[in-house]
Design brief:
This protein is an alpha/beta fold and 504 residues long. The protein contains 17 helices and 19 strands. The chain is globular and about 75 Å long.
Length: 504
């Protein structure tokens, strides 16, 4: 009998590593010798994934399931069960962690582990391989103290270290109760023993890891620990080292600030969840945030550190409206983070925010990623406009390619102006996707001069400067704006029409 155990998932991209699978593998005990980690991406065909899985002749396959891969994983499992119904399929991960709110995928599986899986998956595999009958298909994951877990870092291989993001965590959980987040269900944050954690980081560094992405929900919660970790990396600083942290915006004690100021430019990235500056909405969703401290800290970080600031806002929160959200966006723009991630509220299974569905008429997409479609205060058409706004903002505001042009757009009433720009770009392009960079430049010239009535000479100068900085070959000819704009190549000097509409 083949007793092979496969641990698998579908990553969003190849550059991502499945951190959870390495934790499961690290804690399999004596079963580790018959287990393998096999990773795929959501871009691969289900039939090809199934073929590769079955080629290893597994007895058990454990899938890690998330909001962003549940659709593709469902296709894989359905096909797998058609071809090899006797192969035992076990599901785990956030998307299947709530027994009373499971996706349809759970019906196809033999077993579902809800909650922490490191210990429970090992025990389930032992029982399955010994043919011990299970009392239930649904198995509640067992929580254990962090010092009882084997750390996963030794199971990043050389290919991971060279070409993929390396995920690490110095703590688990979160003491805050923001209802849109699954971490609100945690009682508190629990740290790993610091010495043990830093030893693991030192081993990764010695093996060549230089890109560390911390997944701690609140890295700056305990200042002494944060400072110790930062000092550890400062002592090993080189040109390639890059650290990513998720931090709460309203906590920046002086001791922490002093350490941050010592890092060289572009070696730190902070993901800062602002979400909203509206105190009434914060109260509704149980979010505690000192807005003035948040503004002061964001301003200080931009002025006194070389950190890259990635700040998050959420559109569609209960009680919010388009006009009110604009206020939060405009405030954040004034603080000048390098990136503003405009996210649309999503229905996470088990998240407490679901208690507001009726009162605020929150209507969600039934298909993953379960984005909100409308609310009491935001109709479907407005939600679609903001979805397009978010896409164009990524192309223009977050790309870093329009450093000279963006200030012209955001000079007054940033949200209102960019929404007008977004609407006009969509009217011209007919899509928010498959717009080449060259075409985007010409579309911008048309909209900025004709719809937003900006000075053509000023716009031309800014766009020309940005085009040169973007590294594109040739020269962009903006004398004929709009759909009839023509690109003049410096190599072949070919005239190319840009009026063809992209497919949706």
């Amino acid at each position: 009998m083949n007793n092979t155990i496969l641990l698998t998932t579908l990553n969003a991209r190849y550059m991502h590593c499945a951190f959870a699978l390495r934790y499961l593998y690290a804690n399999l005990g004596e079963l580790q010798q018959q287990a393998q980690i096999v990773e795929f991406t959501i871009q691969q065909r289900a039939i090809d994934i199934v073929e590769q899985l079955l080629a290893r002749k597994p007895a058990i396959i454990g899938f890690s399931v998330y909001i962003w891969n549940v659709t593709e994983t469902t296709a894989v499992v359905e096909l797998l069960k058609q071809v090899s119904p006797r192969t035992t399929v076990v599901l785990g991960g956030p998307e299947v962690s709530f027994a009373n709110d499971l996706p349809a995928l759970a019906e196809q599986a033999d077993h579902v582990i809800t909650g922490p899986g490191e210990i429970s998956f090992r025990q389930l595999c032992r029982d399955l391989l010994r043919r011990i009958p299970m009392a239930s298909k649904i198995i509640a994951g067992s929580s254990v103290s962090l010092d009882q877990l084997e750390l996963p870092y030794a199971f990043y291989n050389d290919e991971d270290l060279r070409n993929r993001l390396i995920y690490v965590e110095a703590s688990r959980g979160c003491p805050f109760k923001c209802e849109f987040c699954l971490s609100s269900l945690d009682r508190t944050a629990k740290p790993f023993e610091l010495g043990r954690f830093l030893d693991a980081m030192d081993d990764l560094y010695r093996r060549g890891a230089r890109n560390f992405k911390f997944i701690d929900r609140t890295f700056n919660l305990k200042v002494s620990t944060s400072v110790a970790i930062l000092e550890f990396f400062l002592a090993r600083m080189d040109d390639d080292l890059y650290l990513h942290f998720e931090v709460i915006p309203d906590s920046l004690p002086r001791k922490l600030a002093q350490v941050l100021a010592r890092f060289p430019p572009d070696s730190l990235q902070f993901e800062i969840g602002v979400q909203t500056f509206d105190g009434r909405i914060q109260q509704t969703i149980s979010r505690k945030q000192d807005n003035q401290a948040s503004r002061d800290n964001l301003r200080w970080l931009r002025q006194h550190t070389g950190a890259h600031i990635h700040a998050d806002l959420i559109f569609g929160l209960p009680g919010d409206s388009l006009e009110n959200f604009a206020k939060s966006f405009d405030q954040l723009v004034s603080l000048n983070p390098q990136e503003i991630q405009l996210g649309i509220l999503k229905r996470l299974r088990g998240a407490p925010i679901n208690r507001h569905n009726d009162e605020f008429e929150l209507r969600y997409n039934p298909a993953a990623p379960y984005n909100v479609l409308s609310t009491r205060d935001i109709d479907f058409q407005t939600m679609q406009r903001v979805n397009r706004f978010a896409r164009f903002w990524d192309l223009i505001g977050n790309s870093g390619r329009f450093r000279n042009s963006l200030p012209l757009i955001l000079a007054q009433r940033p949200f209102e102006r960019f929404l007008e720009l977004s609407d006009s770009l969509y009217d011209l392009a007919g899509s928010t996707w498959k717009i080449s960079l060259r075409r985007l430049f010409s579309l911008l010239f048309s909209v900025l001069t004709e719809q937003l009535k900006l000075d053509p000479a000023q716009v031309r100068e800014a766009l020309d400067a940005d085009f040169k900085l973007s590294g594109q070959k040739g020269v962009i000819d903006l004398d004929k704006p709009g759909p009839e704009a023509v690109i003049r190549s410096g190599v072949a000097n070919k005239r190319q029409r840009l009026h063809q509409r992209d497919p949706a």
